[in-house]
């Protein structure tokens, strides 16, 4: 019998790579342990992503600067902020990011995909993921696709972040096969600084990232089999505590992570005030 394919998204692979125990809490234990409260920075990121999706859904003649505030207001996620004052400050900041970012974008450009799901199967995994945006740009032998990922975190990003991102590489690998067009360029668009960190992959570097993802998938399947076979789930999915525990949704469930002080849900947006 062929082995079943491991169905995965970038977040699923990323969770295991960060901390196998976190993966277990999120994807294996049922009923799943209760998560902590929602994070304001996730709300802020989701609001900005929603507004950008709304922008590209507008007819070209309505993609005007005055539309941005309405889009952001209509897609605003309120969870996790300390109070209304902090939420209002975050709204103003996000509006400034969007206005300045969209001012630099060609309003008539039609991406090939916006929040577009791309999927691909290999001998080991069935990958699917939602790319923030897929652009088409002229290349030496015709149009080529570019994976664009929006970022709203506090710190800027550089070319190493774009090169090392497994998620971006897997999107590119999948998009190339879904659209049957070359897709080697990946870009992180950091809204707060208005900077773009990009990397041009080769077929080999995409392949390397894919092999790494398959290795992770094999490790996860082996850990799941071990638990089914009676191993202690804590051993099969070890905790890898670190500073990230303060931001982990499962810190209150996890004995190792509980030793790290938890962050307030709004801590990441407060630092940016
Ligand atoms: S609290 Fe830390 S060790 Fe525990 S699951 Fe989360 S990231 Fe892993």
UniProtKB/TrEMBL annotation:
This is Recombinase RecB. It comes from Micromonospora echinofusca. Residues 9-255 form the PD-(D/E)XK endonuclease-like domain. Pfam families: PDDEXK_1. Keywords: ATP-binding, DNA damage, DNA repair, Helicase, Hydrolase, Nucleotide-binding. It comes from the Bacteria.
């Amino acid at each position: 019998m062929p082995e079943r394919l491991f169905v995965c998204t970038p977040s699923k692979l990323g969770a295991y790579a960060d901390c196998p125990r976190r993966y277990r809490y999120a994807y294996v234990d049922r009923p799943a342990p209760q998560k902590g409260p929602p994070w304001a920075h996730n709300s802020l990121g989701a609001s900005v992503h929603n507004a950008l999706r709304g922008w590209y859904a507008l007819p070209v003649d309505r993609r005007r600067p005055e539309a941005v505030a309405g889009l952001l207001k209509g897609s605003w996620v309120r969870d996790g902020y300390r109070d209304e004052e902090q939420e209002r400050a975050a709204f103003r900041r996000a509006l400034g990011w969007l206005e300045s970012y969209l001012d630099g974008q060609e309003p008539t450009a039609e991406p090939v995909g916006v929040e577009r799901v791309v999927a691909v199967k290999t001998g080991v995994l069935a990958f699917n993921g939602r790319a923030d945006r897929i652009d088409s740009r002229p290349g030496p032998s015709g149009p080529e696709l570019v994976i664009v990922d929006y970022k709203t975190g506090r710190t800027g990003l550089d070319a190493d972040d774009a090169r090392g991102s497994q998620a971006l590489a897997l999107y590119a690998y999948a998009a190339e096969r879904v659209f049957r067009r070359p897709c080697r360029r990946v870009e992180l668009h950091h809204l707060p600084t208005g900077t773009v960190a990009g990397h041009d992959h080769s077929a080999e570097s995409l392949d390397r990232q894919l092999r790494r993802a398959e290795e992770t998938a094999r490790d996860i399947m082996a850990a799941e089999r071990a638990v089914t076979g009676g191993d202690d789930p804590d051993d099969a999915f070890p905790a890898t505590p670190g500073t990230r525990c303060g931001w982990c949704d499962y810190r209150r469930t996890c004995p190792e992570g509980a030793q790290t002080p938890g962050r307030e849900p709004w801590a990441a947006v407060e630092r940016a005030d």
